[in-house]
Every structure is written in C-alpha cells, then in structure tokens.
Amino acid sequence: MDNFNLEGLGVALVTPFRSDFSIDYEALSALLERLADSEADYLVVLGTTAETPTLSREEQASIRRFVVDKINGRMPLVLGCGGNNTLEIINILKQDDLSGFSAILSVVPQYNKPSQEGIFLHFSAIAEASPLPVILYNVPGRTGVNMNAETTLRLAASSHKFLGIKEASGSMAQVEKILKEKPSHFKVVSGDDALTLPMMALGASGVISVLGNVRPDRFGRMVHCCLKGDFDEARTIHNSLLTLTRLLFAEGNPAGIKSALSTEYNIKNVLRLPLVPVSEKTAIEIKEALMRL
C-alpha cells in the first residue's frame, strides 16, 4: 500500500471483548468483514478507540497479526504507535513486525506535558526510527497538551516521512492555519467526527472516525461527497448523524461506540477498567438514535 494518501474515511477499530474480558476474535473478524465491504477507505488498529492502554504487549501483537491476516491487503491499515516514553516507541518500531501496515499513527505524549520543542524532538526521533510514514495525532483533551500549529508545520516541513496529522484540538483557527501553510505532501484529517464536514470544507482530506465502526456507509458517503465538492448532500448526511455522534461521546469513547455496536451487531458491551459502559439512559438514547437512522 505504498500509495496510501490518507484520504477518505478511516475507521478507528474497537477491540471487542467477551464477558470474561478476553479478546473476542470472532466478533472482531465479523467487524473487519463488514468494514472491508463498506465505504471505509482504511482502518486504524490499536488506537485510542481500541482501549490499547489496557492491552498487554502480547495482546497487541496478536491483534496486529490477526487484522493483517484477516484484511489480507483489501484496504490500507494504519497502526497506532505512540506514548510518552520516546525510547520505548523507538524500540517497538525497530523490533516489532510492522508488515502489512501502510503508516503509523503517533499521539502527542500524554501526562508528561512536554514543551513544543520536546514535542518536535519526540516526533523527529520517531520519524527517524520508523520504517513507515508517520501520521501525527493531536488530541489535547486526552493528552493534556496541545501541539500548536507552528510545531505541526515545523514537523511537516522537516521531513516527507510525516504523512499528515489527525487534528482533534477542536480549534478551527488552528486547523485553518495548518491547512493554509502546510507543504503539499502533508494531509490534515479530522479527529473529531462532528467537525469532519467543516474541516473538509476548509480543505481537510477526511477523518479517522469512531462513528465509522457502526455507520461506515452513511458516514463514508458524507466524506466522499465532501471530497467531490458535493457539500449539499454532505450537509444533509451530517445533520442526520449529529444526534448519534453527540451521544457516542456523551460518556466518553469507546463507551458510546461499544454501546452502539452491542445494539447493532454481535459485539458485547464490555470494556476493560478503568472504562465502564455508558449509563442505561444514554444506552437507550443511542439505540433510539440508531433506529431513527
């Protein structure tokens, strides 16, 4: 997948669990088949939505190989590979089997709260070590620090190894600055389902989505309408999905999408602590929103 260009609908995969909290590979297999036969353009494996911090290194390696084998080249795969220990990430990139993946997605270090210079040097070291292109991931609501537009642009200009950024700062001004000043090779994708339409109207190339797990065809159609410049139809689809999108994040991700998937498909509403399922009230509202669609 050397021509992977970070356009369209990327789906951030969940990790299905059984009632005993073990990984449900049968449910994961069924989910992968649905997504491979949908409007989704690529998949992101072992990102935030996958509850990756609760998975052991052995479980992560097992999921990696399972997804690669199951997809079997039918669509590009992106591997979540980030954290707040730069040397550990470098060791993973050098030692682990990354075959079958087109790029890595690496998040701004959480908890440490590095300076902008620290963020720049962190990602520079990752890019130097990675055998794959790097997609930056800025999500200050989770990490506690915002990678500002200047740092993103500095990284984008420093190396073609940086393929683009999943931007989830929630700041349209920041998005606009990056889109206006970025080099041509560098893509911007939405990291917030609800902001995908306005971001693509400004020039973003797509989204890495949570919602896409349960509604890949409808959301994918919206994204592809945006890519074609058909914002009238895109707006109609966007408006139809607003209530569901809000509910999926009302009590955090991936609690909302796990609730939706348990309603629609054979995926149990099970999360590993410290995450817990959404409240009964929110679960009912999610079910009703899915039924209306």
Task: Describe the structure concisely for a colleague.
The chain is of the alpha/beta class.
Distance N terminus to C terminus?
34 Å
> What can be said about the biggest beta sheet?
8 strands, parallel, barrel
Global structural class = alpha/beta
The helical percent reads 40-55%
Shape: globular
What is Rg?
Answer: 18 Å
| pLDDT averaged residue by residue | 97
The proportion of residues in beta strands is 5-15%
> What is the number of helical segments per DSSP (H or I, 4+ residues)?
12
Model regions low in confidence, pLDDT < 50 over at least 5 residues: none
Please state the oligomeric state of the protein chains shown. single chain
Number of strands: 8
Identify the strand order in the major beta sheet.
1-2-3-4-5-6-7-8
Secondary-structure element series: EHEHEHEHEHHEHEHEHHHH
Description:
The chain has 293 residues and is α/β, with parallel strands linked by helices. 46% of the residues lie in helices and 13% in strands. The protein has helices spanning 25-36, 57-71, 86-95, 116-129, 140-143, 149-158, 172-181, 196-202, 216-228, 231-248, 255-264, 280-292, and strands at 8-12, 42-45, 77-80, 103-107, 134-138, 162-167, 187-190, 206-209. It has an 8-stranded parallel barrel, surrounded by 6 helices. Strand 1 (8-12), helix 1 (25-36) and strand 2 form a beta-alpha-beta unit. Helix 3 (86-95) packs parallel to helix 4. The chain is globular.
